[in-house]
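Check out one such.
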Amino acid sequence: MATKKVKADRCVTMLKALADEHRWDIVRTLLAESLSVSQLGERLGMPQPNVSKHLAILRAAGIVVTERVGKEVRGGIAAAFRAELSRNKNRLDLGCCSFDFNAARK
């Protein structure tokens, strides 16, 4: 029973984190390369404070990591999340649903 609870908790956490199109765009962008918050904002046309807010949610879900490099904060995909995607051909399967990070954005 505890395993079902853990899976359900993870599913809810991931769904909350990936349900926003801006966070989805951030993850897809960071899968290609690590970028600073300002670079992400420029690339995605988002204000820096919004990028920081979305990164915090993705970080709490274990999807991204951030690191201060000099005056910048850089974001990248968390190693465990990247490994999970690599094992599943860039698909995240939560049991209840799956996300395909190969699919083009519509």
